[in-house]
Amino acid sequence: MVCSPVDVVFAVDSGYVVGLRGALASLCAHLGDPGRLRVTVLHDGLPAAVRAAVAAAAPRAEVRFSEVRDERLGVLPLPRRISPYITEISFARLLIPELLPDLSRVLYLDADVLVLGDVTELWDTPLDGVPVAAVVDPMVTTWDAPRGIHNPELVAGRGATPYFNSGVLLVDADAWRARDLTAAAVAYGRREARRIVLSDQEILNAVVDGAFLALDERWNQSAIHLEQEPSPAFEARLARTRVLHYYGRIKPWHDHEPRRRVDDCYAPWVPDRLPS
To answer: Which of 93, 212, 213, 238 fits 132 for a cystine, CB–CB 3.0-4.6 Å?
Structure first.
């Protein structure tokens, strides 16, 4: 029996190429059938040598690169108050159902994740008509949290609405298109640019409007929070983690001290070097 492809999408610039290679290699290594994996890398102009080195991390998968030049990305608000590393290409996730019109289901992953288990179970999760499945953000759990949604008119009376992290998104692209969420997201981002703190994440939460399926934390485990766990809770929580997310300023491929236990998880996936 021929199984349908597992369509995974990343969106990166040159600053996240090492992370992308680790994410892709670990994804492919843990997938039950790597031959099912069909990866699209949205990028802002990666050199051919870099693209080849990234694709080599997943030799049994189909890896495609698509350069995104869209003026809408340049008018959306970057989270300069939060991170200097995030660039316009991060907003490409808002355009995925439009950029990939032939796909009905997509698993979007940030490039700063490490896959520690087979994502087939996540891929097969029924969405039952909702456009997105995601994990509630452990730092911003609700709309009215300090870094949540900054549109008081939208939040009024609905502050307890759960707020999700946008680093791992299982997307029903057909439901997304039916709701025209790309147009809604761009419009919201432009209109609320001065108030938004967490860029694409706030935009997505606002336009999805609470209509998402909340996933178990193992599908988007915060490395920051995991690192805070004492042993043996750290080891137990790590053992059930399927996607480890290194969001924040410190990335495991950066040189920094002191080194963290969660960085040790990443070490086997960091190449000696990548072409420039």
So the answer is: 212
